[in-house]
Design goal:
The chain is an alpha+beta fold. The protein contains 3 helices and 7 strands; from the N terminus they run αβααββββββ.
Length: 146
C-alpha cells in the first residue's frame, strides 16, 4: 500500500483507492490521460524500453520540459490548483526544480494521482507533499471540450 514514510500527510488527509497496481503507465501518463504508455523524458519505461515523451518537448527532467510536454496537450500555465468549472488542471511536483510527479484534477475538484507502479488514488494536492514527491510547483489548465 502507501508507505507513510514516503507520504507522511496521506494518513491525516486520507485517500480513495481508484485502481489496482499496474506498471503499464506512470503518474505523468495518468495526468495526461494516457493509460497505455509510461511517460518520462529520460530513461527506460517499466519494460526497459525508452519511455514515451512528446517530440516537441526536450528529453530533460526539468520543469520547462514537463511544461512543454503538457503544452502539446493544449495545457497552459495557470496560477494554482483552485478548481475552475470548465477546465481540467494538472499539477507538476518537484523537489527543488527537479520534477518528480504529476497529478490531474477531477471534475469534483479532488486530484487523482498514480503512485509509481502502484495504485491510482483520489485525494488532495497536499496529501502527497512533504514526501518523496516534494511539492506541487507548477499548475496548468485546458478547457474541457464540450
Amino acid at each position: 500500500m502507501l508507505d507513510p514514510i514516503e507520504f507522511p500527510r496521506i494518513k491525516a488527509e486520507g485517500f480513495d483507492r481508484t485502481s489496482d497496481p499496474t506498471p503499464a503507465y506512470n503518474c505523468v501518463a495518468w495526468a495526461a490521460n494516457d493509460q497505455a504508455r509510461w511517460w518520462w523524458p529520460i530513461g527506460p519505461d517499466h519494460s526497459g524500453c525508452e519511455a514515451f515523451w512528446p517530440k516537441k518537448a526536450p528529453r530533460k527532467n526539468t520543469l520547462k520540459a514537463f511544461t512543454l510536454a503538457f503544452k502539446t496537450l493544449k495545457y497552459e500555465q495557470c496560477k494554482d490548483g483552485t478548481f475552475e468549472k470548465g477546465f481540467e488542471k494538472i499539477a507538476i511536483y518537484a523537489i527543488g526544480t527537479t520534477p518528480t510527479h504529476a497529478a490531474r484534477q477531477l471534475p469534483d475538484g479532488k486530484w487523482t494521482h498514480k503512485i509509481g507502479r502502484n495504485i491510482d488514488i483520489s485525494t488532495t494536492l497536499s496529501s502527497v507533499e512533504e514526501g518523496i514527491y516534494g511539492k506541487a510547483v507548477r499548475f496548468m489548465k485546458r478547457k474541457i471540450p464540450k
